[in-house]
Design a protein that fits this description.
Elements lengths: L1 E5 L2 E5 L7 H8 L18 E4 L2 E4 L12 E3 L1 H4 L6 H8 L9 H14 L5 H7 L9 H15 L23
Helix pairs in contact: 3-6
C-alpha cells in the first residue's frame, strides 16, 4: 500500500507500487484532468505538482511518492479561479484543451516562485507541447496571470466583465 496526499486529501493506493501516478490518478481516483500524452514525460500533458515542483505523472511510480503532496488540476482551484486559469480563458488560449491542464500546472509552479517572470522565464518553465499552436498567446496570458497574482490587474469577472467560461476541457 502506498500513502501520500492528493489535493489535500490523504490517499492510500492498494495498487502495484510500480503503477505510474498518472494511472493511479485517472483509474483509481477518477481525477481525469491529468492527461496521457506521450508516456515518456516529454509532452507535459500529465503535469502535476509534487511538493511544489511540476513533474510528469507518467514518469513517477506511486511507490516513489510515499509521504509527498500531489496537486492535480482538479485540486489547483475548484472554480477555475487560479490566476493562470483565468488569464488563459480570458485570452482565449485553449483550443482543443488537451494540453491545457498540464500547461496550467507548469505555469502555476512558475508563478509560485517568480511573480514577475520574463518572456524567457515563461518559455523556459513551460515544457508542454501543444499541437494547436497556442504559444503566441501563451506568453502574454501567463504574463497577465502574473499581474493578476500580484494584484495589479483584476481577474476576468471581478469587475463585472467577461466571466470565465466553464467550457474548456475537463479540469482546465
Amino acid at each position: 500500500m502506498t500513502r501520500f496526499t492528493v489535493n489535500n486529501k490523504p490517499i492510500e493506493y492498494k495498487m502495484d507500487p510500480d503503477t505510474p501516478l498518472l494511472w493511479a490518478l485517472r483509474d483509481a481516483s477518477n481525477l481525469t484532468g491529468t492527461k496521457y500524452g506521450c508516456g515518456t514525460g516529454e509532452c507535459g500533458a500529465c503535469m502535476v505538482i509534487v511538493d511544489g515542483a511540476a513533474r510528469p505523472a507518467c514518469q513517477m511510480s506511486i511507490a516513489s511518492l510515499e509521504g509527498t503532496f500531489v496537486t492535480t488540476i482538479e485540486g489547483l482551484a475548484k472554480d477555475r479561479g487560479h490566476p493562470v486559469q483565468q488569464a488563459l480563458i480570458a485570452a482565449n488560449v485553449p483550443q482543443c484543451g488537451y494540453c491545457i491542464p498540464g500547461v496550467v500546472m507548469s505555469a502555476a509552479v512558475l508563478l509560485q516562485g517568480n511573480r514577475s517572470p520574463s518572456e524567457a522565464d515563461i518559455k523556459g518553465a513551460i515544457p508542454n507541447i501543444c499541437r494547436c499552436g497556442i504559444y503566441p498567446r501563451l506568453v502574454d496570458a501567463i504574463s497577465h496571470a502574473a499581474s493578476i497574482a500580484r494584484g495589479e490587474t483584476q481577474a476576468p469577472g471581478e469587475n463585472g466583465e467577461g466571466s470565465p467560461s466553464p467550457g474548456f476541457g475537463n479540469g482546465a
